[in-house]
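Hi team,

Below is the intake form for Transglutaminase-like putative cysteine protease from Sulfurirhabdus autotrophica. Please confirm the fields before the structure is written into the shared record.

FORM ID: S-0412
PROTEIN: Transglutaminase-like putative cysteine protease
ORGANISM: Sulfurirhabdus autotrophica
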Amino acid sequence: MHYRVIHKTEYEYSEAVGVSFSEARLLPRTTANQNCRNSQLQVFPVPTDYRERVDFFGNRAVYFSIREPHQQFVVTATSEVHIDPQEAQLNFSQGLDWESVRLMLRQKRDEQTLDALQYTLDSPFVSASPELAAYAQISFPRGRSLLEAVNDLMGRIHKDFTYDPEFTTLATPLSTVLEHRRGVCQDFAHLAIGCLRAHGLAARYVSGYIETFPPPGKEKLVGSDASHAWFSVFVPELGWMDFDPTNNQIPVDQHIVVGWGRDYGDVNPLKGVIFGGGEHKLEVSVDVRNLGG
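The structure came back. Fields below:
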């Protein structure tokens, strides 16, 4: 599948910003099944400094600064991405059991496993806890295959939790999400990651986009799509496998990857520091267009 993604972020300030420094992770990365054919980041006002780098996790990060007074700040990322479908029909009942995978993560010393080991540790937004371990335990009986356990956990999160964009913010702890069973895709990804890490497994956060569809008979509105988040679990010999608990779906060819890391903080779409500005108004729109195969 071939997609065009336009992600626009616009700030309006009540007072002039004297200078600003920003870092964006809005340009999709190239993976085994995803090829970012074309991408560009437009910034207004035109930045004084602008440079792109690859961060620790292999994501594309763009740094820029604006050193002239401004009351409007607009960042528009436009990308074209081709996705080859991933394997959707896995036999979840086969493969290594989750306890064996946990043991291998501690014993094997190959490059891929050593890299995955960092994703078993706590991170700023995700800390393993007895409560998360207890919630996950139903999905992780002794001897169950890892993929079957993770697939079951994904389905339970989808069933047990209500999607509620008004309930959480970036500061809402996972314990609150677990207690009230409400949140958004970011929360559900963090929740699953915390459950897996609580069982000694390697899980990482994936940021990107997903193609959405309008109601029957309605035209798709420009900007009606949104950023999305899901998670991946490390499976020895297979590598990283993606799961989307918000939609109870194994990503195949509708999920567009921007980047991954330990949690949201490693792939924040846009962050920075400003001097001045007063109060602000923020508008974000994302448009994902399917251009065909």
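SUMMARY LINE: The longest strand covers residues 2-24.

Thanks, M.
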